[in-house]
């Protein structure tokens, strides 16, 4: 008989299962809201309800440019993002109650982007647990969470359930 999974693994597995509902070809993301050991909600990234998603209508990409400091030098960095998709964290906030979020944890397959981090910072949660890094916004997100007193933990050794598509386009 094997032992039980620890709580972090259990809830991250559920976040990855939620991500399987996503039709995004660039990045499938799942999120789970947990209070104590109680599951309060799940969400994934995708187009708004009733709207064709990226698998049907194609990605709606926009380009952005950002100045980053690399080895003491400013460099212009080009970023692409899909604006058709509502992020998993955003959907989680839309479909859960503020009272449930107070003091809760969010398990998300990927480190939140800057926009989602800002939204989570105002949501009442106390902790974000993620698996895959999102380097484009990592430094800003880490600083924001520190400033807000929200714990941001990465489960680096976590292994997603077998058969779950985990490939990511950057």
Kindly describe this structure:
With 170 residues, the protein is an alpha/beta fold. It has a domain at 7-48 and 85-154: Cytidine Deaminase, domain 2 (3-Layer(aba) Sandwich). It contains 6 helices and 7 strands; from the N terminus they run H-E-E-H-E-E-H-H-E-H-E-H-E. It has helices at 7-19, 54-57, 88-94, 98-101, 114-121, 138-148, and strands spanning 30-35, 38-44, 61-70, 73-82, 105-110, 127-132, 151-154. It has a 5-stranded mixed β-sheet, with helices on both faces. It has a two-stranded antiparallel sheet with strand order 3-4. The termini are far apart. The model has no long low-confidence stretch (mean pLDDT 91).
Task: Please outline the helices and strands.
Layout: H1 7-19, E1 30-35, E2 38-44, H2 54-57, E3 61-70, E4 73-82, H3 88-94, H4 98-101, E5 105-110, H5 114-121, E6 127-132, H6 138-148, E7 151-154
Parallel strand pairs: 5-6, 6-7
Antiparallel strand pairs: 1-2, 1-5, 3-4
Helix pairs in contact: 5-6
Organism: Paenibacillus contaminans
GO cellular component, one term: cytoplasm
InterPro entries: APOBEC/CMP_deaminase_Zn-bd, CMP_dCMP_dom, Cytidine_deaminase-like, dCMP_deaminase, dCMP_deaminase-rel, Deoxycytidylate_deaminase_dom
